[in-house]
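4.2 Preliminary Data

To establish feasibility before requesting continued support, the project team ran the inverse folding procedure on a target of 205 residues. The structure was first converted into the token representation described in Section 3, and no sequence information of any kind was made available to the design step. The complete token record follows.
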């Protein structure tokens, strides 16, 4: 599947019916999701691999990974409503994705090295400072390779946070477009510069 075809397919998927600001439920733009997945696929991290979409929301990354021939894809999220939409999105594409309701944190329901690759769009921390830290921790425990979407300029922080456990081996720039979603949004849309960071674990956890 070509990059543009993947992007167009992901654009058709449903987003959050009632997004929750506390969970920073912003739909991952199809362009950014496709770029992350296509880059990971080009490095052999998707096709034939066990892929986890961490904090999967409505499943755009999980569905995209399955379309790119991942051997098995699972998505984990704490929100039942989002998981229902993710299930419907997978069904609309006639693909199979395992969806699990679970918390990202100390009670994370995934054993170390259960997956080959993690893909994720963690919270940026707009509502809760350092909200992305549990995602980083769980991601590098679940798989040796992680591809995540972060605010542009986050790389130094992430590098310091994972020092001694993992390292950033690639970074790709992009733009995360957020349409007006919540009452406190004053603009019709915001274009937020982001970085897709590839994180590789240095040693087994």
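Position-by-position output of the design step:
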């Amino acid at each position: 599947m070509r990059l543009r075809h993947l992007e167009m397919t992901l654009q058709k998927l449903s987003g959050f019916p009632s997004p929750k600001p506390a969970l920073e439920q912003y739909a991952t733009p199809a362009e950014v999701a496709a770029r992350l997945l296509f880059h990971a696929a080009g490095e052999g991290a998707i096709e034939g691999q066990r892929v986890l979409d961490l904090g999967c929301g409505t499943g755009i990354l999980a569905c995209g990974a399955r379309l790119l021939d991942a051997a098995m894809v699972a998505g984990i999220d704490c929100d039942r409503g989002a998981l229902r939409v993710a299930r419907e999105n997978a069904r609309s594409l006639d693909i199979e994705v395992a969806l699990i309701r679970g918390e990202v944190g100390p009670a994370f329901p995934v054993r170390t090295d259960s997956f080959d690759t993690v893909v994720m769009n963690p919270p940026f921390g707009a509502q809760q400072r350092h909200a992305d830290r549990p995602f980083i921790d769980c991601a590098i425990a679940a798989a040796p390779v992680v591809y995540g979407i972060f605010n542009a300029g986050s790389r130094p922080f992430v590098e310091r946070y994972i020092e001694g456990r993992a390292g950033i081996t690639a970074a790709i720039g992009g733009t995360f477009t957020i349409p007006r979603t919540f009452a406190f949004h004053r603009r019709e849309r915001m274009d937020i510069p982001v970085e897709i960071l590839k994180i590789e674990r240095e040693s087994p956890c």
